[in-house]
Amino acid sequence: MSLPGTHDRKTTTRHIFPNCAVEIIHADKSDDGYVEEFGNNTHHVVGAKIACNGTYRSTWRFMGPISPVHKPCDILSYIPPNVPWGTVAEGRGKAAGVSCHFSHEYFRAVTGIDDDRSISHLETCRDIHGVTIKQGLRRIYSEIIRPDFASDALVNSFAGIIALEMARYFKRAAAKRRRTHSHTMEQQDLLRIRDYIYECSEERLLISDIAAYLGCSERHIHQTFRVSFGITPHDFIKAVKIRKSVDLLNEGVLSIKQIAHNVGFSRQSSFSAAFRATTGATPAETRRLGRTDFSCLHIGNDAVRAAIMGR
């Protein structure tokens, strides 16, 4: 670690909403030294780094034996109440962050999560994942920095969604601890993964995102897809995105280029090639014929095809 440094400027503005309080943090640092901060919240805090430039880097950890190493702040953070924490900022640049502070009563009512400071719970808190949670935090930041019509209502709604997604996350984590090592996957889990990919089709989803969503390891995802369905998880992600693109094609609103972007392809040519390999037709042919029959999908077994067709 370098020598101690200081922030040239660091501001925290607090905004109060019915479901939570939101803190917006902006930091500006021009030296390479490190800055340490420590705290202990009275609320449940969910936050993330929104933007950063230069060599500025910040990390956090729970204080004590639960977290011997720091964790990058651009990974979603959740800090329960009455748990000491510490942060370290190093390097030069500017950074922005946002955090939602939920009261104990509200968070418990929505999530069912009580004042749990067990080692297993805090270990789970250290590794929060969730595309929806991070998207919600980004929208909250945007609505507060650039307010528009009904921004307060939107912020409050997104805060509620974040709390619900936290409840889902911890339920999946609990299921992971109960999960056997049979390397098989139920159809219900496949449908949950399908819906998750469908709703996040613009994102560059990683296997780690799906593993976190389902509450298991990446290795488990790879093994269960191979054993249960005869395909890779990457193939399934691509197939679900192609399935969504068919819905968009049949709506007739977006161009094929726009649809390619909406399902995560940077180039229309790559999208068209993947589309034809999966469905046996081109996007233009599918749009022209209004095709909705997926019985000839060239992927996986009957369970996979049923999951994709059933959306």
UniProtKB/TrEMBL annotation:
Q: Name one Pfam family in it.
A: HTH_18
Do you know which InterPro entries this protein is assigned to? AraC_XylS_family_regulators (IPR050204), Homeodomain-like_sf (IPR009057), HTH_AraC (IPR018060), HTH_AraC-typ_CS (IPR018062), Tscrpt_reg_AraC-type_HTH (IPR020449)
Q: Does Transcription count among this protein's keywords? A: yes
Stretches assigned to the HTH araC/xylS-type domain: 191-289
The protein in question is named HTH araC/xylS-type domain-containing protein
Q: Which GO terms describe its molecular function?
A: DNA-binding transcription factor activity; sequence-specific DNA binding
Matching PANTHER family: ARAC SUBFAMILY, HTH-TYPE TRANSCRIPTIONAL ACTIVATOR RHAS-RELATED
Q: Which organism is it from?
A: Caenibius tardaugens NBRC 16725
Organism domain of life: Bacteria
- Keyword terms of this UniProt record: DNA-binding, Transcription, Transcription regulation
